[in-house]
Amino acid sequence: MKKYGIICFILVITISFRPLNAQSYEKGDYLVMFYNVENLFDTINAPNKHDKEFTPDGRKNWTHERYSKKVKDIAKVIDAVGGEQPADLIGLAEIENREVLERLVEHKTLSPYGYKIIHFESPDERGIDVALLYRESTISKKAAEKIKVDFPWDPDDKTRNILYAKVHMAQQTLHVFVNHWSSRGGGVGKTAPKRMRSAALVREEVDEILATNPEANIVVMGDLNDEPENLSVKRILYSNGNTDSNCESLFNMSWKPYKNGLGTYHYWRDNEWNMIDQMIISRSLLPEKSNGLVVTEKVQGIFKPDWLLHKNEQGVKVPDKTFGKNYYGGYSDHLPVFMYINKVND
């Protein structure tokens, strides 16, 4: 893999904290969001997938009623992120198949928005994939493909693909990568090479795009299962929170909230927040560049209304998840992240 550009120093900028939610975040022409929805499964036992627990007779007693509630809840969250402004691009993780996506976009809460689906079945052993939804009235799809994630040192280990889509937004090309990198289950150090491998595959694609067009508009979003300062994100994907407009690394929109101690996933064992759901952009989308499209703020928002949370045993408000030791009936163990993009007037 050929690295593009030069290494940039990381500059940490001290800022005053203000809540980053849909009410205080500066809106724009287009809303882009990502959401790990925590196991959106149907109730059917699919062949060659380890999904039996998500059946009526399985360990999780995944009934039609629970499945219907899950679809309704996820639709509610997606609809609420932008308030009266529906999301134009929605990256999703932990969805089982196209059928659950179709049921989601056809739910009465979302059906008025006319979402179209970009999805590829992946070889993940659990049967979970990533996907991208787009509003046909505001976004047009030009191309899409899956990027297979393999581990040369362990070819039998199967995981989800990375989804790549090229879309048009305000007659401008936007390259989008939707990710769900390997989890830390089994140990952070032991599993780190897997996330580094995914980072390298994304960076290789990004380098090819930038080699053709150094001013390309790129969004890398997803559940990376690593934080902004981890090797996979900071060094291999080559992203940081430096606002220097001459720096050719990617700009990590999660940097500021991460430095302020915020997160999108609460790890119960350490009772700590982790910033693992991230939105990372090429510098052409920063206000200093204004190359047809521009983010309204240099930071991702975290959608965190009280109704999406519950108090844990320590009294900390954390994501109201669907499953823990038992069925909780909540939304997801992750919080959605989002940003707004404006079209630049000529």
Task: Give an overview of the whole structure.
The protein is an alpha+beta fold. The chain has a single domain (30-343), classed as Deoxyribonuclease I, Chain A (4-Layer Sandwich), CATH 3.60.10. It is built from 5 helices and 18 strands. The chain has helices at 64-81, 98-105, 188-212, 231-236, 255-259; strands at residues 30-40, 89-95, 115-119, 129-135, 139-147, 162-169, 172-180, 217-223, 239-240, 250-252, 265-267, 272-274, 277-281, 293-295, 301-302, 309-311, 317-319, 337-343. The strands form 4 sheets. Strands 1, 2, 3, 4, 14, 15 and 18 form a 7-stranded mixed β-sheet that branches. Helix 3 (188-212) links the parallel strand 7 (172-180) and strand 8. Helix 1 (64-81) packs across helix 2 (98-105). The two termini are 36 Å apart. 43% of the residues are buried. The model is unreliable at 1-20 (pLDDT under 50).
